[in-house]
Amino acid sequence: MPRRHVIIGAGTAGLNCIRTVREEGGEASDISLVSAERPYSRMVLPYYLGHTIAESHVYTATPASLAAWDVKARLGRRAARLDSVNHTVTLDDGAVLEFDDCLIATGSRAVKPPIPGADGAGVHCFWTLDEARAVVAGVSPGSRVAMVGAGFIAFTILNALLARGAKLTIVEIAPRILPRMVDAACADIVARWLARHGVTLRTDVTVTAIEQAGGERRLTFKDGEPLAADVVIMATGIRANLEWLEGSGIETSADPGGGIVVDDRLRSNVKSVYAAGDVARGRNRVSGALEVHAIEPTAQEHGRVVGANMAGRDVAYRGSLVMNIVEVCELDVASFGQWEDGGAEVYTAVRADRSQYRKLVFDGGRLTGAVICGPAADIWTTNDVGMLKGLVYAGSDLSGWKAHLRKNPFDIKPAFLATRTVSRLLPETILSRASQSPQLPQSVMIP
Amino acid sequence: MRALALHPERCTGCLRCELACSYMQTGTFQPSKSVIRVSPFEGHTSYAPYTCTQCAEGWCMTACPVGAIAITAAGAKDVIDDRCVGCKLCTIACPYGTMFYDGATRKAYKCNLCGGAPACAEACPTQAITYDDIAVGDWIGEFAAERTARVLRFESSVPVAGGLR
Questions:
Q1: Predicted confidence (pLDDT) at residue A337 exceeds the cutoff of 80
Q2: Which of residues B1 and A127 earns the better pLDDT score?
Q3: At residue B163, does pLDDT exceed 70?
């Protein structure tokens, strides 16, 4: 009998797993895909909101492309129960799928704090395609938009909201913006940049209620003036979709961040059940800690490693690197690795007149984290952002360069080249083989 | 498969490769748009070109959330413009610093080996860039290490201001 793979979740991790199983070839296998939604890329929803791509552009698989992969797709269905003894998954319509191995890739969902009125009309999250459609329908030129939360997710849609002609106010409970992506010095530069570009920022404020008043929304605060808005967007965090696994015997962590505990093959405590992406507590490549990263590149790498292992290869994963990049009003902001490590050796530089910032974090001779910020025109002319990733990822020995980098944190390129980081990186592949072109439904042939 | 081989000891820093590349990639003679970059060493007394190796992992390609980077017949990873949304994930996924972003088109771009006839290699008057049937490699690491060693020694003994240029 062909091996039966059941993939739960059609996000980045799930689809990369399926693609990799098929790329590896080998013996014939059955793949079943369970997904509540039609597969699409969450990463590109901001561009749909900003009108630079059509809705059709967000899809990452179609019934035809799934059929071409010989995938039995159960779209519109959710997994309701996993039986790790009898190796079955029961769906919300009662169907029972037997598996030889299974991937849990159910991702995250947006969550709202328990604020009175947070479920009212005109109050949206921006996480799923349905939520994106609601925001697209609700925001028109001149709309007053109140963004609750100033984290990475909020920042990914600022450009799109401004492009739609919204008048934007961001309210944040913390004293500063982007707390999990950049340090306070960088956040300050970004905040000033936003103010110069017409975005109102209110930090250190706690929303106490969202009231409906004559077709508009009224946000009230613990301190300070109320705020009137046509649309409220709640960017107040995400939570992994793990509740359905209660009683399954799949071990989740009680530590902060939670997640399914996985080994270096992304297997849970039940060896035939893998976990990937936002639900997996995987290895941090730099620190070695087990963490949920909840970022696209981690989901992608997790998914491919699971796919290769499901296909019969034995591929170990050395861990993922936390990294993010976001652009607001042509200011690029990115961070890599352990940029907030308080005990480490830290070199920073600011060019206030150009809104540029650099932070390099060292553990001995190794660069373990970095923050970079600057106008897009500067960032993409210098073009050393990727080199920071390369140095962190390769763990190059920069001992001989630290004195230079302490004086010149912006001058990373000669250090990257002279430490032979390219030769350290070239043998690195996630699957111990060359990658193949993606086979997505919209892919076009290059002549 | 043929690849770009870089021979820094032959490079004169004339930047013809950058001009040819930017013209091929963006239709303008503008080194800042080139995806091959010439780095100066030791106070502009020696130079080395640097560009994408078309690495086996293809970090840019695997990272793209919409499959907008694919392998061409020439063996290059190339951006499919109609698919790229400009999210820049490839620019942080590529550990080599060889993914670029064009603010004018709001799309990523990179070395695509000019479809199998690289303009940089053709433009180079000293064969510092050649297009050969050769394995990819770290063409300038050794050179960069040697050409920066003296400056680093000098810096560690004398406080200096400014970059290592």
A1: yes
A2: A127
A3: no
Interface touch A438/B138, C-beta < 8 Å: no
Judged against a pLDDT cut of 50, whether residue B74 lies above it is answered with yes
- In chain A, residues with a C-beta closer than 8 Å to the C-beta of B63 are 296-297, 300
Helices A296-310 and A12-24, interaxial angle, to 10°?
A: 30
Q: Tell me, which fold does domain B1-51+115-155 have in CATH?
A: Alpha-Beta Plaits (3.30.70)
pLDDT score recorded for residue B1:
85
Interface test with B, best of A59, A333, A380, A406 (most B CBs within 10 A): A380
Task: Identify the structural domains of chain A with CATH numbers, from first to last.
Answer: 3-109+239-310 (3.50.50.60), 123-236 (3.50.50.60), 330-425 (3.30.390.30)
Residue A441's pLDDT band (boundaries 50, 70, 90)?
low
Residues paired with residue A72 on neighbouring β-strands, in sequence order: A32
Instruction: Give the model confidence (pLDDT) of A276-298 as tens digits.
Output: 999 999 999 999 999 999 999 99
- Tell whether B101 lies on the interface with A, counting CB pairs under 8 A: yes
Reported as type and span, the H/E element at residue A440 is none
Mean pLDDT taken over chain B: 93
User: Which residue in chain B is spatially nearest to A371 when comparing CA positions?
Assistant: B92
DSSP, residue by residue, A350-372: EEGGGTEEEEEEEETTEEEEEEE
Q: Which amino acid is at A434?
A: A
Report domain B54-110's class.
alpha beta
A400·B152 Cβ contact <8 A: yes
Per the listing, tokens 């800042």 go with B32
DSSP A264: T
Facing residue for A394 by CB, picked from B93, B95, B152:
B95
How many other CB atoms are there within 10 angstroms of residue B125's CB atom? 10
H or E element: which one contains A201? strand A200-202
Q: Kindly report, as residue ranges, where domains of CATH 3.30.70.20 are found in chain B.
A: 54-110
Chain length of chain A: 447
The answer to whether the complex's ipTM is over 0.90 is yes
At A142, which amino acid appears?
G
- Global pTM reads 0.96
- Average pLDDT, integer, range A228-232: 98
> Cα angle vertex B116, ends B113, B122, to 5°?
75
Given a cut of 70, is residue A409 above it in pLDDT? yes
